[in-house]
């Protein structure tokens, strides 16, 4: 989802400049319009030139939201695909243990 607030003005500016706007992993939603990420998703999906959905379910969500098939492609899930691609590369880069790494979702860290 596009939860980053700068995503909306960036997409609007690109649209006004007649540039291609593509949204990756589109159609993933919470259906909760009280969340800014959900509002951002809806806005960006409607102004985007191309939408890349991870699944057929996400594509159906877009159809239900009034977005036609012409601008949507089912391309797979970026994180899942990256995990499959890197499966078996279980080595840490040199100096990794000296870095102060923070998880994207701190609640997912093991204590």
How would the blueprint of this fold be written?
Layout: H1 7-16, E1 22-24, H2 36-47, E2 50-53, H3 56-64, E3 72-74, H4 78-86
Parallel strand pairs: 1-2, 2-3
What does this structure look like?
- It is a single chain.
- With 111 residues, the protein is an alpha/beta fold.
- It has one domain: Rossmann fold (3-Layer(aba) Sandwich), CATH 3.40.50.
- 36% of the residues lie in helices and 9% in strands.
- The chain is built from four helices and three strands, in the order H-E-H-E-H-E-H.
- It has helices at residues 7-16, 36-47, 56-64, 78-86; strands spanning 22-24, 50-53, 72-74.
- A three-stranded parallel beta sheet has the order 1-2-3.
- The radius of gyration is 17 Å and the shape is globular.
Keywords, separated by commas or semicolons:
three-stranded parallel sheet, 111 residues, globular
Q: How many domains would you count in the coordinates?
A: 1
Mean pLDDT: 77
Sequence of strands across the biggest β-sheet: 1-2-3
How many angstroms separate the termini? 28 Å
Instruction: Give the second-level CATH assignment, the architecture.
Output: 3-Layer(aba) Sandwich
CATH topology: Rossmann fold
Approximate shape? globular
CATH superfamily annotation = Glycogen Phosphorylase B
Q: What helical percentage do the residues reach?
A: 25-40%
Strand content: 5-15%
Give the CATH class: Alpha Beta
> What's the helix-strand series?
HEHEHEH
What is the helix tally?
A: 4
Radius of gyration: 17 Å
């Amino acid at each position: 989802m596009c939860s980053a607030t700068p995503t909306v003005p960036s997409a609007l500016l690109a649209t006004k400049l007649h540039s291609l706007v593509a949204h990756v992993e589109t159609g993933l939603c919470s259906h909760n319009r009280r969340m800014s990420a959900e509002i951002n998703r809806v806005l960006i999906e409607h102004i985007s030139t191309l939408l890349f959905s991870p699944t057929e379910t996400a594509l159906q969500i877009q159809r239900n939201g009034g977005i036609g098939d012409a601008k949507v492609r089912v391309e797979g899930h970026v994180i899942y695909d990256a995990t499959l691609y890197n499966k078996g590369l279980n080595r840490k880069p040199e100096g990794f243990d000296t870095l102060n790494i923070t998880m994207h979702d701190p609640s997912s860290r093991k204590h």
